[in-house]
Structure formats: structure tokens, C-alpha cells
């Protein structure tokens, strides 16, 4: 009799466990569906001056389809970040990583669920690449004189929102190789080529 009285409880317990597992699995599936993993990691790259004015902007999707919407977003992002020491912000449902240098502000933007470390890797790669190309003189005047190099570097790092490269040495080397097709200023070309030659020389000596 004791055995028979325990049997219903056993089945009730099994049914309860199955229900819990079903709910948990359904919740995980919903989270994965919401995350929508994608290779298209980067939504935009921005460089603003210390007044919040655009020096460079490249958007990779239609989150802000018009120039007016883009400028409003850039003003908002500058107002929220230019007086803080943080490197990450959440703004308008987006993840923003950023850093400043003298009179410049660099931004890489991704979706709200994007991995901040991946976005930061893109930001650091861009900044370090420009730092090498401009001989560590990363400021507004020098950047404006070498915008061609900036465009080339960004294209080497990101293509349509997909991250292609996170190694600044590789970016500088490829910009140097493309320098013949899209001329930079004479000074910058020589700097990039010299840097690339040094990297090749040391790699051969290892």
C-alpha cells in the first residue's frame, strides 16, 4: 500500500520537472532569437572634434537613414560622452565605445546586445593604426591633412559592418600597399611605407 501511495507523487514530480525544463528551454530559445547573432557587428564609426562637429562618419545600416538623423544622433552622443571618463555608453538602444585624443573623439557603435570587447577591439585598432600613420600626432589638424589614410584604414578594418581586421600592424601595411592606387599626402605615404618596411624586416629576422 505504501508503494501505491507514493506512485502518484512520483509522477507529479516528474511532470513538474518536465514543465520546468520546457519553460527554461523556451526562455533560452526566445533570448537567442532576440539576440539574432550576426556578422554585421558595427553600425557606425564616428570621429568628432571637441565641439562635437563631424570630421568623419560612416554608417553601415539604416538605423539613421538621413543626414539630419545622423547629425542629431552625433550631437546626442557627444553631449553624453565628452565629459565622462567612461569608455562605454548605452544610447538610443545602441552600445557605444569611445576614446578621446587631444581634440578628437573616436566612436564605434554596435547594437544593444553587441559584445563590447569586439567593438573596443575595432576602436583600438583604428586609433592605433592612425597613431602609427600620423607618428602619434593624432589631432584634428593632422587628421584633416591625411583624410585619405583614414578612409583607407577604416575600409581595411570594417567592410559593410563586418569586422575584417583588428591588428593595427596589418592595417598599416595594407594601407601602404594601397597607397599607390589612392595617393595620400607625400609625408604620410612615406611614413606608412617606412613603418610597413620595418615590420616586414623584423618579421623576416625572427
UniProtKB/TrEMBL annotation:
Function of the protein:
The coatomer is a cytosolic protein complex that binds to dilysine motifs and reversibly associates with Golgi non-clathrin-coated vesicles, which further mediate biosynthetic protein transport from the ER, via the Golgi up to the trans Golgi network. Coatomer complex is required for budding from Golgi membranes, and is essential for the retrograde Golgi-to-ER transport of dilysine-tagged proteins. The zeta subunit may be involved in regulating the coat assembly and, hence, the rate of biosynthetic protein transport due to its association-dissociation properties with the coatomer complex.
Which InterPro entries does this UniProt record tie to the protein? AP_mu_sigma_su (IPR022775), Clathrin_sm-chain_CS (IPR000804), Coatomer_zeta (IPR039652), Longin-like_dom_sf (IPR011012)
In its UniProt entry, the species of origin is given as: Xenopus tropicalis
Q: What is this protein called?
A: Coatomer subunit zeta
What keywords are annotated for this sequence in UniProt? Cytoplasm, Cytoplasmic vesicle, ER-Golgi transport, Golgi apparatus, Membrane, Protein transport, Transport
Q: Which PROSITE patterns match?
A: CLAT_ADAPTOR_S
Any Pfam family the entry gives: Clat_adaptor_s
* Keyword set includes Kinase: no
Query: Cytoplasm: present as a keyword of the record?
Result: yes
Q: GO CC annotation: what is one?
A: COPI vesicle coat
The entry assigns this protein to a family as follows: Belongs to the adaptor complexes small subunit family.
The UniProt subunit note reads as follows: Oligomeric complex that consists of at least the alpha, beta, beta', gamma, delta, epsilon and zeta subunits.
SUPFAM superfamilies per the UniProt record, alphabetical: SNARE-like (SSF64356)
Domain named AP complex mu/sigma subunit: residues: 41-179
The organism's lineage is: Eukaryota, Metazoa, Chordata, Craniata, Vertebrata
Amino acid at each position: 500500500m505504501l508503494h501505491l501511495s507514493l506512485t502518484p507523487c512520483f509522477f507529479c514530480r516528474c511532470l513538474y520537472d518536465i514543465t520546468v525544463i520546457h519553460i527554461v528551454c523556451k526562455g533560452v530559445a526566445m533570448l537567442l532569437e532576440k539576440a539574432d547573432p550576426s556578422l554585421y557587428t558595427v553600425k557606425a564609426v564616428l570621429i568628432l572634434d571637441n565641439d562635437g562637429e563631424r570630421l568623419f562618419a560612416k554608417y553601415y545600416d539604416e538605423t539613421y537613414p538621413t543626414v539630419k538623423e545622423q547629425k542629431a544622433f552625433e550631437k546626442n552622443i557627444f553631449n553624453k560622452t565628452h565629459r565622462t571618463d567612461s569608455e562605454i555608453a548605452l544610447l538610443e538602444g545602441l552600445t557605444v565605445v569611445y576614446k578621446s585624443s587631444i581634440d578628437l573623439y573616436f566612436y564605434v557603435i554596435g547594437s544593444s546586445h553587441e559584445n563590447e570587447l569586439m567593438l573596443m577591439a575595432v576602436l583600438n585598432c583604428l586609433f592605433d593604426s592612425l597613431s602609427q600613420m600620423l607618428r602619434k600626432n593624432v589631432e584634428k589638424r593632422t587628421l584633416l591633412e591625411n583624410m585619405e589614410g583614414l578612409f583607407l584604414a577604416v575600409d581595411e578594418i570594417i567592410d559593410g559592418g563586418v569586422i575584417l581586421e583588428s591588428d593595427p600592424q596589418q592595417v598599416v601595411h595594407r594601407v601602404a600597399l594601397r597607397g599607390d592606387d589612392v595617393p595620400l599626402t607625400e609625408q604620410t605615404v612615406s611614413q606608412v611605407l617606412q613603418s610597413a618596411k620595418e615590420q616586414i624586416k623584423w618579421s623576416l629576422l625572427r
